[in-house]
Amino acid sequence: MPSKEKRTRGTGSIYKRKDGPNYFIAYYGRNGRQVHESSGSPIKAVAERLLRKRLEKVEKGVPVDQARKLRYEDIRDALLTSYRNNVIGIVTRRKGSIHGLAYLDEFFANVKVQSITTPLIDDFVAKLKSGELQRRCRKPTEKRAIKPLQNGSINRILALLRRMMNLAWESSLIHSVPHFPMLAENNVREGFVETDQFKKIIGFLPAHLVPLVVFLYRTGCRIGAALQIEWAMVSGDCTKMFLPGRITKNKKPLPLKLTNDLTAVLRKQFRSGKVFDDTNLRSAWASATKKAGCPGLLIHDLRRSGARNPVDSGTPETVAMKIGGWLTASVFRRYNIVSPRQIDEAMSSLEQNDGALIEEAASAGD
After folding, report:
1. Contact of 42 with 22, CB cutoff 8 Å
2. Residue 335's pLDDT is what?
3. pLDDT at 195 (0 to 100)
4. 250 and 244 in contact (C-beta within 8 Å)?
5. Cβ contacts of residue 328 below 8 Å, gap of 6+?
6. What is the pLDDT of residues 49-76, one digit of tens each?
7. In degrees rounded to 5, what are phi and psi of residue 95?
8. Half-sphere exposure of 85 (CA within 13 A, CB side)
9. Does residue 114 have a pLDDT over 90?
10. What is the rounded distance in angstroms from the CA atom of residue 332 to the CA atom of residue 285?
């Protein structure tokens, strides 16, 4: 029988077995059952520290034996369930195929959650930056060259894992969430589509994509939300839409008056099921922008344009935010990018208002 040291009731015990040098700890878990665990060390102070940690978890309501058994797959499933319950489009549209999830699945497969620490997360990031995980996850038939992920993409993947850990913590399955070393992002996209560019682009797009692209440009709506719009949400004369809260990002219903160009193209559509068709959208967009002489533009640049254009035309910021579904002014302003043309116009307006400040400038303007 192991020899246990007597301690105050409720503070657990520390002991050694005859068959080894390491100390063991014993304590009662949240379920009332006694737990025996090796400290993995012959040093008593190490066992003392481990016992204190275990007792703290029991005191704070985290079942220790349950936390020890919890694995990555458990918190992954909890994340997807949360997304489905809250009708998060990223899951409902892609059937659980979320960008970056495959890398997490590959690296953290069968890993105990209590082993997911900051050093392990750092190792995960290093393998993403080197391209190792991309090689391990690629399909045998895939021929595209493997490229290391940019910091922004890595941060979005880390955010998925952090959300999993936070859900586990909120459910009292783990005691704490490790620090996540998010990377500096210096590749923030600032593209937007000028009106003259947009008119050229839609001239090269297939007819079935024009309604969707015009809607994105006019409203700044997220593409995922736009693809959920059904004809039942459109008035009979195609002059108005009523978007329910389950579609809008801020979860608030949005009555929306449509512009004349949107009304014109929608009246030509067959009114059944979903309003917009995105078949081959990305390849068609890439081809159209190239032919229009602006190949660097992305589809998401339409959302940035949808933020800037209303404000540029005099629409109050709060109204533009509601139309495009932005939740906070700080996020909206990241989309509402000032163009070089606006800066030129501002400087010209300033000079016209103040007049010449020095005589040389006045004479040069004559």
Report:
1. yes
2. 58
3. 85
4. no
5. none
6. 988 888 877 766 666 666 678 899 999 9
7. 55, 40
8. 6
9. no
10. 25
Amino acid identity of 241? M
One-letter amino acid of 217: Y
Q: Classify 233 as helix, strand or coil.
A: helix
343 class by beta-carbon count within 10 Å (0-12 exposed, 13-18 middle, 19+ buried): exposed
- Residue 11 has phi, psi (to 5 degrees) of -105, 10
Question: What pTM did the predictor assign?
Answer: 0.54
Give φ, ψ of 171 to 5 degrees: -90, 10
Distance (Å, rounded) from C-alpha 98 to C-alpha 148? Answer: 18
Amino acid at residue number 134: Q
In this predicted structure, the answer to whether residue 298 has a pLDDT above a threshold of 80 is yes
- The enclosing H or E element of 16 equals strand 13-16
Residue 24: left (phi > 0), alpha (psi -120 to 50), or beta?
A: beta
The half-sphere exposure of 274 on its side-chain side, counting CA atoms within 13 A, is 14
Query: What Cα–Cα distance (Å) separates residue 52 from each residue in 3, 9, 150, 160?
Result: 20, 14, 41, 31
pLDDT at 162 over 90: yes
DSSP H helices in the chain: 44-59, 64-69, 72-85, 89-94, 101-108, 118-130, 132-137, 151-170, 195-202, 210-219, 223-226, 260-266, 281-291, 301-312, 317-324, 329-335, 340-354, 359-365
Angle between helices 151-170 and 72-85 in degrees, nearest 10 = 90
Q: Going by CATH, does the domain composed of 195-335 fall within 1.10.443.10? A: yes
101-129 as b/e, with b when 16 or more CB fall inside 10 Å? bbbbeebbeeeebbebeeeebeebbebbe
What is the rounded CA–CA span in Å between residue 294 and residue 203?
Answer: 13
Say if residues 201 and 292 touch (Cβ distance below 8 Å).
yes
Q: Distance between CA 166 and CA 150 in Å, rounded?
A: 24
What is the C-alpha separation between 351 and 349, in angstroms, rounded?
Answer: 5
What is the spatial distance between Cα 255 and Cα 322, in angstroms, rounded to a whole number?
Answer: 10
- What average pLDDT does this structure show over 346-353? 69
Q: What is the pLDDT of residues 274-287, one digit of tens each?
A: 999 999 999 999 99
